[in-house]
Design brief:
heterodimer, A: mainly beta, 11 strands, globular, B: 114 residues, mainly beta, six-stranded mixed β-sheet, 12 strands
Chain lengths: 118, 114
């Protein structure tokens, strides 16, 4: 597609339910990133992939959070047993080659998925 | 630990006036520096980036930023603001050691008065 596409754009879920957020990166982009942004704050890194391999998951807050990118394209961020503190915007981004913020590689962000846990 | 500070949470500026947004970082290594803008209902759009070379970088929409190593700053400027510049602006930093992780500041929301 023309840009990074995320779905759903808005999700309201009850505490304790599992949620899956989907990201479709720009076609051909090698690297895919997940960030979380709470209200009034800047985005915080969660995890990233090069192709289908998860390179860094150090930003995932706990083991309720997981991400996969099985075929090196679309990615899913899953939050199990959601809690109210998980409410935030979840942003996906992609870049055309590995290296993220290095060496002139630009990261393109999607519009985000707003998650509200009630 | 790496950190990025945007001291101004909100800035109000009149249309046609100049704008400067501050960004300070705390890193041990030479940083790569970015400014992103988030307009309502939009994703984060890259305005400009600095990797090396000339410390004054030009970006899209008439924005520029200057890297000052001695002040650990990367302030964003625009000589004449348009109403469409009303948005939230984020400074972000990464380093070679940090790999692909962008560390963002808390953002500055810009309001433009007619």
């Amino acid at each position: 597609g023309a840009g990074v596409s995320q779905s759903p754009r808005y999700k309201v879920t009850k505490r304790g339910q599992d949620v899956a957020l989907r990201c479709d990166p720009i076609s051909g982009h090698v690297s895919l990133y997940w960030y979380r942004q709470a209200l009034g704050q800047g985005p915080e890194f969660l995890t990233y992939f090069n192709y289908e391999a998860q390179q860094d998951k150090s930003g995932l807050p706990n083991d309720r959070f997981s991400a996969e990118r099985p075929e090196g394209s679309i990615s899913t961020l899953t939050i199990q047993r959601t809690e109210q503190r998980d409410s935030a915007m979840y942003r996906c981004a992609s870049s055309p080659r590995t290296g993220g913020g290095l060496s002139g590689n630009t990261i393109y962000f999607g519009e985000g998925s707003w998650l509200t846990v009630v | 630990a790496q950190s990025v500070t945007q001291p101004d949470i909100h800035i109000t500026v009149s249309e046609g006036a100049s704008l400067e947004l501050r960004c300070n970082y705390s890193y041990g290594a030479t940083p790569y520096l970015f400014w992103y803008v988030q307009s309502p209902g939009q994703g984060l759009q890259l305005l400009l980036k600095y990797f090396s070379g000339d410390t004054l970088v030009q970006g899209i929409k008439g924005f520029e930023a200057e890297f000052k190593r001695s002040q650990s700053s990367f302030n964003l400027r625009k000589p004449s603001v348009h109403w469409s510049d009303a948005a939230e602006y984020f400074c972000a930093v990464s380093t070679k050691a940090a790999g692909n992780k962008l560390t963002f500041g808390g953002g500055t929301r810009v309001l433009v008065k007619p």
